[in-house]
Here is the input.
Amino acid sequence: MKARVIEAFPTRKGMLSKGQIIEIPPALLEKLKGKVEPISEPKAWLTEKGELRTQGVFDDLAAEIVRLTKDNLLLQRQLLTRHCGEFDQQHIGHLWEAWEERVAIMEHDGGLSRREAEYEAAERLHLLAFMDIRADARSGN
Here is the structure.
């Protein structure tokens, strides 16, 4: 189970700092009472207005947003841009480089068509919502 450290304490592997999220067996929860607090499984949902609401800590918020918005790429792009710092304008260039490299590998080594490789790479990097931006950039729009 996931737990948040509420009081720093040493372990055999080093010091655990306050605020750190750790994974512990449920049996240890009572032994560490006062030092950690359990974190419930994270939940995410969209309101009727398309606003993202979360409860708990997500290891990969981008993947959760993609899961919730797989049928609405415009909303997906908006939520990823708003809630995931990794999609800022500076970092998006690095993601496109990683995407182009992955496309080439999937096309060459994996035997996929160019279109299939582009889609698969975008899906793995959570970039499907940004694909039309890339298409516009290539066409000069």
Observations:
- The two ends are 49 Å apart (CA to CA).
- The chain has three domains: 2-38, 43-86, 88-139.
